[in-house]
Amino acid sequence: WEESTLHNDLKVIEPKTQSEEDEPPKVELKELPPYLEYAFLGDNGEWPVIIAKDLSSKEKTDLINVLKTRKKAIAWKLTDIKGIDPEFCSHKILLEEEHSPKVQS
């Protein structure tokens, strides 16, 4: 066994309250490739998931029912992933101090 290293530089993210978990995420639905479609785990277009378009009606119903029962396990946003600091996953471009960002055309 290798000993695991404790990373003191990582932040601890506090768990969300029950009411925050019950609120549907506010997401912008984008155009999907022709082989995918949106399905919704809630009413009125809430709790969107992306599924394969070529599933049979029964397969879609079964899949949506399973996803509904496991809804809390789905990370709807980066901040929903327990134990991972969103800053750790954010893209940053590191520049040397004497350089400044430029827009190229």
Q: Could you list some keywords that capture this structure?
A:
105 residues; alpha+beta; two-stranded antiparallel sheet; 3 helices; 2 strands; 10% strand; extended
Overall description:
The chain is of the alpha+beta class. The protein has a domain at 27-86. 21% of the residues lie in helices and 10% in strands. The protein is built from 3 helices and 2 strands, in the order αββαα. Strands 1-2 form a two-stranded antiparallel ribbon. The chain is extended. It starts with 17 loop residues before the first helix and ends in a 16-residue tail after the last helix. The model has no long low-confidence stretch (mean pLDDT 77).
Unreliable stretches (pLDDT < 50, length at least 5) are none
Strands side by side in the biggest sheet: 1-2
What is the string of SSEs from the N terminus onward? Answer: HEEHH
Largest sheet: 2 strands, antiparallel
Summarize the structure.
By secondary structure, the chain is of the alpha+beta class. It has 3 helices and 2 strands, in the order H-E-E-H-H. Keywords: Nucleotidyltransferase, RNA-directed DNA polymerase, Transferase.
